[in-house]
Amino acid sequence: MKRLFYLIVIIVLPILLFFQWKKYRRFNPPMEYSYPVNDSIDANYHDPGLVLTYYQAAEATGSYARHCWRKERIDVRYPNLDNPKEATAARTYQQHVATTQSLERKLLQSAKWKAQGMSNKEIQVMEGTGMNPTQLSYANILGDTGVVRLGAEGAGVWHIQRLLIQKGFEIRLDGIFDQETLAALNAFQLQDSLRQTYGVDQNVLQALMNE
Predict the structure, then answer these.
(1) pTM of the shown model
(2) Alpha carbon distance 172, 40 (integer Å)
């Protein structure tokens, strides 16, 4: 009998404590609700208006929670979901949180890209196209056609020549895809058992970039 009593206590006591804790949280919430602004965001984001919107959204999230508690005695973080009014307030609060977090993720991603050396302009392009930094670097080198061939000139060719030089080929670094550059490219492809393409596309560029 004694053992049965202890067993019941072990089962029931945690349940009672849990419901007491929920009741305490509902009726004794912190008076200063606030959404913690993340200091790691990109404060110099290419769209300053979005940074301002983030700060406003964070403030609005905390402001709404404080309003619900002070005016309605509703703790939006620990609502009684059986009460329609509290359930609605909690959903609205979660919408505020989701909006703020969405803005925060965008600004944190921008900060991460900047730590990798990306500029505001490059970040804007990546966000608009869905490209990642590697894909953007390919696009910057290969241009609109996606292929650099004999006779091409410009910064893209310069980068390709630099990569070939890093691979040990002695060629001029002048941004002109001439016969010398093509010969080095063909030698690189032969050396790495790659199909000769007589030009540089994304697959060839990826092989050149690999250490």
Answers:
(1) 0.70
(2) 43
